[in-house]
Amino acid sequence: MSQQPIITLLTDFGSQDIYVGVIKGVIAQINPQISVIDLNHEIPPQDLAAARFCLMNAYTYFPRGTIHVAVVDPGVGTQRRNLGIQLAEGYLIGPDNGIFSSILSLSPAQVVVELTNRQYWRTTNPSDTFHGRDIFASVAAHLANGISLTQLGEKIEITSLVNLPIPQCQVIDHKIIGSIQYIDRFGNLITNIPESLVRGKSWCLTVGRIKIPSHQTYGNVRVGSLLGLVGSHNWLEIAVNQGNAQQQLQLNLGSIVEVIYQ
Amino acid sequence: MSQQPIITLLTDFGSQDIYVGVIKGVIAQINPQISVIDLNHEIPPQDLAAARFCLMNAYTYFPRGTIHVAVVDPGVGTQRRNLGIQLAEGYLIGPDNGIFSSILSLSPAQVVVELTNRQYWRTTNPSDTFHGRDIFASVAAHLANGISLTQLGEKIEITSLVNLPIPQCQVIDHKIIGSIQYIDRFGNLITNIPESLVRGKSWCLTVGRIKIPSHQTYGNVRVGSLLGLVGSHNWLEIAVNQGNAQQQLQLNLGSIVEVIYQ
Amino acid sequence: MSQQPIITLLTDFGSQDIYVGVIKGVIAQINPQISVIDLNHEIPPQDLAAARFCLMNAYTYFPRGTIHVAVVDPGVGTQRRNLGIQLAEGYLIGPDNGIFSSILSLSPAQVVVELTNRQYWRTTNPSDTFHGRDIFASVAAHLANGISLTQLGEKIEITSLVNLPIPQCQVIDHKIIGSIQYIDRFGNLITNIPESLVRGKSWCLTVGRIKIPSHQTYGNVRVGSLLGLVGSHNWLEIAVNQGNAQQQLQLNLGSIVEVIYQ
After folding, report:
1. How far apart are CA B183 and CA B71, in angstroms?
2. What pTM value is reported for the model?
3. Tens digit of pLDDT for each residue in C73-113?
4. ipTM of the complex
5. CA distance, residue A31 to nearest chain C CA (Å)
6. Closest approach of chain C CAs to the CA of B36, in angstroms?
């Protein structure tokens, strides 16, 4: 039992229905000893960009060999493929719709298979609307049980995967032009500007006409004040000490932010 | 440990308080090795119909012997009875208020006891408002530990249980008149018309003056378009590809839908 | 494995981001066998009073030795200290901001350390905004693994901790003047008046001009009617049978309530 891999789940199923519980039941039917960790089930419906962001920022915090199941799947039941992917750090299971693009840009795929072997599905006649239950959960549990990835289906070319890249920020002289790529529960506005671009430098943010100084942490400014900081996922972000930057600035996903550094 | 049954929890406790966490603590006090799976804690307060729907559609996805604890319990602390029920597939623990009616119509009760044996409660002086903690969680953990159902209380007649049946759909010639019995996170409108009534047939739905064609899955229609389909629980449902059918149609629980098939 | 302590998590991280999942990943990286129970992640952002209330009312329902990690932490990354506390019943891990005040008033601290030993942190260079991941989760997992509390840092004086006491109710003759200290999912208004003050007595509540009789449980009054009762945490509370007392009375946290008893 000591080497049993963990399965994580990331979906847009929310918590008001039985979809997530049933996925865990399917895993338990195959092996009740498998540990399942909820990564996040509150991805907005069909929001692949949010799912992509969450996976990319989470996978390094799990044990080697962890199996990440991601089910944000507007194309379920159509011709889009079901994927099993091996990374250096573990495995990815989910639809071929770009949800894994960001994580794969950081940790290249070693092996990719299309999950065609129905022997490891929950049923050979799966629901056309719930592959999470009938294919992904079942396949992940068998993988955790020691079935090898290549038994789950046919190898396919890594280059054939659907790609959904993050909008990149642009560096021009001492200015970086980026955008908001994620907004968290606290209303923190997380940009697509990595900390590495300003490391060791003095920097500040500009949003429209508003200039926002950078600090080390929330408590360095007065309650209610805006600040820029390096967020816990190492992206530059805009926050308000004990407040909500999204509400204060009325920014949205994709809104432009500029960073000046020296 | 290999044969330790799982406990599932279905409640209307939500996630903003400690009620669910405390139930898990009580189980862990009895045996920290027991696996607990959250089925759903976002049942709307006191909504027995939603609870009944969720249980009925979930129980087949869990290992044999699983103990399902259901606590939607507006009559807590009154004379309503506390039940332990044995099915072919596992056990049900909860109040005698009809919450188990649908599951029992599919999987008949083999043994029913009233949970009167205070030896297996958390305390012999339970809270009048939280039997989930002081009776159901404790009894479920002892059952998972190998105590037999009949040790938990007195056998009672199956026919004496409170019954809360699903409104049945009606078939008249080639028309089925049904209603919306559940609305999920995505705004999918789930009817009380089982897939078996239209299997192998051509069918479409009518809601008021709106005619909705049936398809295999969401992606078979344009983004934003309505479709009828066989949902993952094998009920006919109305959905919108990458949209929200409830918002688009402004239907509610109980709204009438018609199906025509040939 | 039989003696492995459980870790519980209480945060204001909500469920829409990966923060909680990542904390569980960090624990699993140290030891995937550790059981983690979610106490509550929906504490309103930075609401130390709600966090304090939840911890105080939950800790007795867990096995001895349980490690409670609490991360509501507006001062993260500033000079505020990180604490490890030993109680008779288990351990507390979190920031020194008063979040543990109430629990410590019921169960005195036996040993308190400041978590200064970076050997047990996830990284010696932790994020200034996410000590939950980089310090608290890691330290809790090592504690669960058998590292002693005093290895985690320097002992400090119990009297030096930040104190954030509950507003106390006042007893004047046969009247108790208290206030609402917590409002739960159902809209139940939980006062700061302990049941012990009215035990064995006849009592009723007054809110403004509204007089509210006490009963044993919800079902003792008509649907939609107000009642006072002893809540499951042994505080007097105001509820509505199958309704929402907060919405009906429009009370808030801190609103004054009076109890008359004889």
Report:
1. 20
2. 0.96
3. 999 999 999 999 999 999 999 999 999 999 999 999 999 99
4. 0.96
5. 15
6. 10
